[in-house]
Structure formats: C-alpha cells, structure tokens
Amino acid sequence: MSNKKFNQQKFNQFIIENNVIGFFQQPITLKSGRKSHCYVNWRNVSNDVFLMDRLTDFVIDFVKDKNLQPDCFYGVPEGATKLAILVQYKWAKKSPFYGPFSHILAMGRGKPKDHGDEKDRFFIGVPKGKVIILEDVTTTGYSLLESINTIKKIKEASIIAAIGLTNRMEKGLDGKSVKESVEEKGVPYFQMSKLPELLFLACQKNNPSKEIAQKVEEEFQQYGIEKLKLLN
C-alpha cells in the first residue's frame, strides 16, 4: 500500500473545479511577456479562505511525499506570498520544536525599498534555515530565479527546493525549461501540476471553440516542452 499523501488526480480536479484554467478569444499578455489564449489564474483560490485552506494542505502533503524538511516557506512576490505565509503557519504549528522564535514568518517585497538595511530592502521577515520557495505559475521561471538569487545572498538561509503549483511546461528565451534553469542554480525544482494535462481537463469542462483550441496547440508547438493535442 502506498504511503503517499498527495493525490495528483484530486489536485488536478481541485484546479479545474475552481476555474484556475481559462480560455480567451483574444490573447492576453502573460507576466513573461508572451501572449496566450489560455491562462492559469490562481487568484480564484488565493482570495478565498476555504480554498486556501485546502490548497495549503495539498502543498504540505506534496512536501511530505518529497521527504523535504524545511524550516521556512517563502513565496515569490507577490503571486505566492499569501500561500507561503499560510503554509509556514500550518507547518510551524505541527513542528515538535514550535515555540517562541522557532520559525520565521518570511515575506518578500514586491518592490525593494530604496533605503535601509539590504535585507530589509527585499524582505519583511528574512528567510532563514532550510527554505522552500513557492511559486504559483512558472512559465519562463524569471521571477522564481530572481527570488533564488536574492535568497542565496542570505548567509542564514539555504534553499532546499522550489515548488510551482502549475508549470506551463514552456521553454524560456534561452530554450531551457524552468526545471533546467532552476536546477542549474543548484536548487531542485518540483511541479505540482502541468498545464498540458490541465488544459485537456479544462477543455472537457469548458468546451472552448475549435479556433481557440487550435491557437493553444500552436502556442505549445512554438514554446512547449511537451506536445499538446486538444483537437481530435
């Protein structure tokens, strides 16, 4: 019998049920600068207390299955900030070492201050100990890599993993995957879901037009690491 706690099928279902995946007639501009007819929007979940409670449990189960033992969760500003704070709170409360000053509540600034101590310029609560960086969506991985570079400057912190809720499974401008780019920094990368699999499920639910489905397929032909087939 498997001792795994994280259930991929249930997590994918959670994503689809809560409309994290969307299709658009007119392409939208992603944070990476690319235009796409599909979008991964975790705000539908991150703005709701009940859904965030469920999401944090999924993250903790995933971390346990990977046998990771962090001291601190840190969210890439600003998309994963709330998630990391809530996961850190739950994780710390269950620790046998929980007590005053046992766990830092770290948070990164969306925009660094232009004055003060260097650590305070980038953080409201500086990460320390063994750190897991959380990101909601990874496309080219630029924001995640930026956070890795910033935390690597902290002597009291060591990054043991980076986790993305959803990996769009696209190549960066250098032709590398997010996993390749992150692991070149010496940080293991894990994804909790992959967009190609989610798009197939979202098509079954939302039934986008053939025109939109074809446009999405074409995007993956251009940028994707994996092939995507939505049309019969």
What would you say this structure looks like, in words?
There is one protein chain. This protein is of the alpha/beta class and 232 residues long. The chain has one domain (8-223): Rossmann fold, CATH 3.40.50.2020. The protein is built from nine helices and six strands, in the order H-E-E-H-H-E-H-H-E-H-E-H-E-H-H. It has a four-stranded parallel sheet with strand order 3-4-5-6. A two-stranded antiparallel ribbon has the order 1-2. A hairpin with a 5-residue loop joins strand 1 (21-29) and strand 2 (35-40). It is globular.
SSE topology:
Layout: H1 8-17, E1 21-29, E2 35-40, H2 43-46, H3 49-65, E3 72-75, H4 81-93, H5 118-122, E4 129-138, H6 142-151, E5 157-167, H7 178-183, E6 189-191, H8 195-206, H9 210-223
Parallel strand pairs: 3-4, 4-5, 5-6
Antiparallel strand pairs: 1-2
Helix pairs in contact: 1-8, 3-4
